[in-house]
Amino acid sequence: MIQLENVHKAFGALEVLKGIDLTVREGEVLSVIGASGSGKSTLLYCVNGLEPIQTGRIVVDGTDVHGRGTDMNALRRRIGMVFQQWNSFPHLTVLENVTLAPRVVRKLSKKDAREIAISQLERVGLGDKTQAYPSMLSGGQQQRLAIARALAMEPAYMLFDEATSALDPELVGEVLDTMRMLATDGMTMIVVTHEMGFARDVSDRVAFFHQGVMEEIGPPSEVMLKPQSEHLQKFLAKVL
């Protein structure tokens, strides 16, 4: 599981996370919602060790993410992350993009990396695009490529940082469908999203962040349909 204990994160004088306590259990899908600047994306970066924290602890499967001596490469093999921008290598084919990390980081043979890559590309609906280059793909396909690339490391957890925010509206659905498939398959996921339908229909729990504080967390039926926080009520009135 992923555990956060009284996590504080600041950028200079700006405190972005103000004492976050959170546990995400195996197989759970947690959607994190809230206005821009509320600390949602920073939460993911801290969980993955991409940003340091000032105080508190983040523990993944018993490993202190920010502890001295933590093998960050080993940790990140267990935590896949998909960003707003897909960041493909433009000079590599789709297949080469997906096999790169398993070969370099996991030290897999070319044959084994290829088998995993093809399996994950088929899983996200890109099995017919192995020899294409990223520039030949739509935005939705490029984001699904980014998901396949993360899955090729065979992570235990997946973090999604507003994975659909850079897409044209007509392409959002195909990426959300891929994320729904992962949830159905039992992948543990933390999803920072503005897609309220996904948060409502797919999540086991929804967490609402406001100015660095997790104001509410619970099942979608409670958080989204019976909001207690005045800030959450105002937020939902704008986005629903």
Explain this structure:
This protein is of the alpha/beta class and 240 residues long. It has a single domain, classed as Rossmann fold (3-Layer(aba) Sandwich), CATH 3.40.50.300. Helix content is 38%, strand content 25%. The protein contains 9 helices and 10 strands. It has helices at residues 40-47, 72-78, 94-104, 110-123, 139-151, 169-184, 196-202, 220-223, 230-239; strands at 2-11, 14-24, 29-33, 55-60, 63-64, 79-82, 157-161, 188-192, 205-210, 213-218. It has a 6-stranded mixed beta sheet, sandwiched between helices. It has a 4-stranded antiparallel beta sheet with strand order 2-1-4-5, with helices on one face. α3 (94-104) packs parallel to α5 (139-151). The radius of gyration is 18 Å and the shape is globular. The protein starts with a strand and ends with a helix. The mean pLDDT is 95.
- Report the end-to-end length measured between terminal Cα atoms: 31 Å
The beta-strand count equals: 10
Q: Tell me the overall shape.
A: globular
Estimated structural class: alpha/beta
Strand coverage percent: 25-35%
What is the top-level CATH class? Answer: Alpha Beta
CATH topology: Rossmann fold
Strand line-up of the largest beta sheet = 6-7-8-3-9-10
Please trace the helix and strand order, writing H or E for each element. Answer: EEEHEEHEHHHEHEHEEHH
The CATH superfamily name is P-loop containing nucleotide triphosphate hydrolases
Helical percentage: 25-40%
Sheet with most strands:
6 strands, mixed
Number of domains: 1
What is the alpha-carbon Rg in Å?
A: 18 Å
- Which architecture would the CATH scheme give at its second level? 3-Layer(aba) Sandwich
Overall mean pLDDT = 95
Catalogue the unreliable spans. Answer: none
